[in-house]
Amino acid sequence: MAAHCNSAPLSCKPWRNRGPRPVSTLLPARLSPLPQTPFIFHSDRLKLSTCRWDKGVSAVVSEESAVGSSSSGTDAFKLTYLEGNSWLWDVSGVRILVDPILVGNLDFGIPWLYDAAKKFIKNFKLSDLPQLDCLLITQSLDDHCHLKTLKPLSEMSPNLRVLATPNAKSLLDPLFGNVTYLEPGQEYIVESSNGSKVRIQATAGPVLGPPWQRPENGYLVISPQGQLTLYYEPHCVYNKDFLEKKRADIVITPVIKQLLPNFTLVSGQEDAVQLAKLLDAKFIVPMKNGDLDSKGFLASIVRGEGTIESFKELLSKELPDAKVLEPTPGEPLQIPPP
């Protein structure tokens, strides 16, 4: 049964059902973008594996180094970008799948309006995933809570621990039996089979609808020994008051704005710089969540603003010691503790 947990230490109680929201009421509010490169995971191999995909892009995933880092007691983040809003994180052996879009295209159920495919990770199979400790969902729309992916994933792993925004309850409850819905400020400790524990705290993200609706989620992810903290929110929309007393060594954020006429879908550039400054970040990992092969009316009117290079220039003036680490889709980016 799905549960709502109040904070750590957690006391859980059933969450009241929220009715499903029609897509038509969601689209004008805030659509977020999508996925980028190739990779393959063999959980039965403990050796570094390298594969080549169509278009000649290489992808690397190391089970051995992930297990080794946790066994040695060293905090480390291994971040694999799966294009769009999707990630696989290995935090000292705790494996967290984030906002996965891994089966089919992203079309919000209305492909004439928007239909997007990944550019690099084309031949991925869910069976290629390693054993997961947690599924993390930030938002309730299809580009984060992708039912084409989540339905088969739930059939493969019905007891998978899921942490999510309460806005996704009507979508996740029919699929998974081990869901915890986190309001901003609440947290949960995820433990792996090897005993590593990662603390995840929800933060306030964008409001995808009328102003009175609860916000979607961002997350702070704290490594087992507390040496590293990661912050993730896929729209670069955040509550400054909530975050001003927080710190994050690693910030994953879009830096290129995605704009509709008179409307911002995804923020970035100056807002991303201010976010990094607010959290006193040491590393900024930019995500190109709009960089997809897309078609449809919406795709024709969305435009990008800014580049990673212009973001770096802005960042150097405000936070000169911070480093920008650009991920290659499908290739793990490892960030060790200081």
Automatic annotation (TrEMBL):
Which SUPFAM superfamilies is this protein grouped with? Metallo-hydrolase/oxidoreductase (SSF56281)
Pfam families in alphabetical order:
Lactamase_B_3
Source species, domain of life: Eukaryota
Species of origin reads: Hibiscus sabdariffa (roselle)
Q: Which InterPro entries match?
A: RibonucZ/Hydroxyglut_hydro
Q: What is this protein called?
A: Metallo-beta-lactamase domain-containing protein
